[in-house]
Design goal:
The structure holds 2 protein chains of 2 kinds. Chain A is α/β, with parallel strands linked by helices. Chain A has one domain: Rossmann fold (3-Layer(aba) Sandwich). Chain A has helices at 9-26, 38-46, 61-67, 90-93, 142-149; strands at 32-33, 52-55, 70-71, 79-83, 107-111, 113-123, 130-136, 157-162, 165-169, 174-177. In chain A, the strands form 2 sheets. Chain A has a 7-stranded mixed sheet with strand order 1-9-8-5-4-2-3. In chain A, strands 7-6-10 form a 3-stranded antiparallel sheet, covered by helices on one side. In chain A, α1 packs across α2 (38-46). Chain A starts with 8 loop residues before the first helix and ends with a strand. Chain B has a domain at 20-224: Bacterial phosphonate metabolism protein PhnH (Rossmann fold). The radius of gyration of chain B is 20 Å and the shape is globular. In chain B, α2 (20-35) crosses α3 (56-65). Chain B contains 8 helices and 13 strands. In chain B, the strands form 4 sheets. Chain B has a 6-stranded mixed sheet with strand order 1-8-7-4-3-2, with helices on one face. Chain B is 27% helix and 17% strand. Chain B has helices at 3-6, 20-35, 56-65, 83-96, 144-152, 157-170, 199-202, 275-285; strands spanning 41-42, 72-76, 109-113, 126-130, 181-183, 187-189, 208-213, 218-222, 228-230, 258-262, 268-272, 297-298, 301-302. The chains are: A alpha/beta, B alpha/beta. The interface between A and B is large, with 47 and 50 residues.
């Protein structure tokens, strides 16, 4: 008789992290709690040796190396960990996929502060009507650059991390700077 | 770095049956599917102990999402007790230890074949639909590379032509299940073989829907509050099945999607397709303390 397998700590953490990411991405702009070491948890849940990763944050590098992922530059990476973003031009070089294969677009993880700073209005799939949110800690011109780089369904999807909170901004979300 | 840090303890079976790398691949693809609503994303589709075509796609999504606290409901054509639904439900419970339920209101994760429950799904619920044929263009373009190009170009003229031909030949649109629907104004998807009755339930819904085809290795999603519009002509309105005035002969429920039960004398009676809703309605008339949830259809009319 089969005994029910028990969830290991690693599995439980990855499951919870993914649940938070999926929830955040399907409800853009609504913060969701995630592990306190959010980026490490995301690496555990998503990254393995099938991934190409660009990492700008030296703190995360050992974790990424441990997963066995290929390190690559932003133009070929399918996951980009940007840490605290300083130069918006990195967005231009990120992989956006193609009209044939929009899933080749990158997943971007960056740090920001949620609840202060620039007021944004979000609309699109996952948002009931429209939603306003303040986001700080991103370089000047970030939102304009994002809009320039996206040509739906081509584009990249952003997770913004603030401590133990995450918000998801898929390429389908329209962001208006107020 | 030692070997110990690179390996994990031996386990007789991974939690939730799928190994960690299969789950990571599914997670990455599910995120992309949510980011581009209605667009079919290819994925690896691993082996599960069930024949392809029997819900392996939905099963893999459920196995990735499940944890010991997830309350699972599985339905097949609306029924919780059909062989396919019962087997998938017991398998999910066996490999995850998750509690199971028949009640739509108590479920966190609902895996379904060919129906969406009659009770309105909440924001915290996830609906997983099993999809036999994820390509809405297949009947008009069997070559999947060309079909992919047509999706890239949003070239859906032939879909409209197919619907037009049905009207010309038969006087009405003959497409019963898998009614092609435009998601977020960009990608046409098949909503899996749910009846026309169920398609409006996906439009601007509160819940997340993930559609997964195991045999065809494609996954796509409808996030909450996303437009899902069945393809219709301006002068030929979308029509759901004519079930609004039918009454279930067992539960007395009226104005829901019904199964037709042929009788020996050539007539037919009807039975509600969402079996647990019928059971709850019967128990309530018998005086049990049962909560019937808010339904999408009220008196046979879709409430928007």
């Amino acid at each position: 008789m089969l005994t029910v397998p028990t969830a290991t700590a690693t599995e439980t953490r990855a499951n919870h992290t993914f649940e938070a990411l999926l929830w955040a991405l399907s409800r853009p702009g609504m913060p969701r709690d995630i592990a306190s070491d959010a980026e490490a948890a995301i690496i555990d849940a998503l990254i393995d040796r099938e991934c190409k990763v660009y990492c700008a944050d030296p703190v995360l590098m050992p974790l990424i190396l441990k997963t066995g992922a290929f390190l690559s530059d932003p133009t070929t990476a399918d996951h980009a960990f940007l840490g605290k973003l300083i130069d918006v031009n990195v967005l231009e070089s990120l992989r956006a996929g193609s009209d044939l294969y929009p899933d080749d677009g990158a997943t971007v993880v960056a740090n920001a502060q949620i609840g202060t700073g620039q007021l944004l209005r979000l609309s699109g799939p996952g948002v009931d009507g429209s939603l306003q949110i303040n986001i700080d800690g991103l370089p000047q011109g970030f939102w304009a650059k994002r809009a320039d780089c996206l040509r739906y369904p081509m584009g990249f999807d952003i997770f913004l991390i603030d401590g133990a909170r995450v918000i998801g901004l898929p390429r389908s979300t329209q962001i208006e700077v107020l | 770095m030692s070997l110990k840090t690179l390996t994990r303890d031996w386990e007789p079976m991974s939690y939730g049956f799928l190994d960690a790398s299969a789950k990571r691949e599914l997670r990455r693809k599910m995120l992309k599917a949510v980011a581009v609503p209605g667009c079919q994303m290819p994925y690896a589709s691993r082996e599960v102990p069930m024949a392809r075509g029997w819900g392996t796609g939905g099963l893999q999504v459920s196995l990735t999402l499940i944890n010991p606290k997830t309350c699972v409901k599985v339905i097949d054509q609306g029924a919780d007790d059909s062989v396919n639904a019962a087997s998938i439900r017991s398998f999910l419970a066996k490999v995850s230890g998750a509690p199971t339920t028949l009640d739509t209101l108590k479920a966190d994760l609902i895996q379904s074949r060919h129906r969406i429950p009659e009770e309105v799904l909440r924001e915290d619920q996830v609906l997983v639909l099993q999809v036999p044929n994820p390509e809405p263009l297949r009947s008009v373009q069997p070559n999947m590379s060309i079909a992919r190009q047509m999706h890239a170009d949003a070239d859906y003229g032939r879909m409209w032509l197919q619907l037009y031909e049905q009207i010309v030949r038969s006087g009405r649109i003959m497409q019963g299940a898998s009614y092609p629907s435009m998601v977020n104004g960009r990608h046409v998807m098949t909503p899996s073989p749910i009846p026309r009755w169920d398609v409006p339930k996906l439009n601007m819904a509160k819940h997340l829907t993930i559609l997964s085809a195991g045999r065809e290795k494609r996954i796509f999603a409808v996030p909450p509050y996303t437009r899902v519009e069945p393809l219709v002509f301006d002068d030929v309105p979308y029509k759901v099945e004519d079930h609004a005035k039918l009454t279930c002969n067992r539960s007395g429920a009226r104005g829901f999607f019904m199964n037709e039960i042929p009788q020996e004398d050539g007539s037919s009676t009807h039975e509600i397709s969402d079996s647990e809703y019928g059971v709850k309605a019967i128990r309530r008339t018998e005086g049990d303390d049962i909560v019937l949830g808010d339904t999408w259809y009220k008196n046979g009319e879709m409430s928007s």
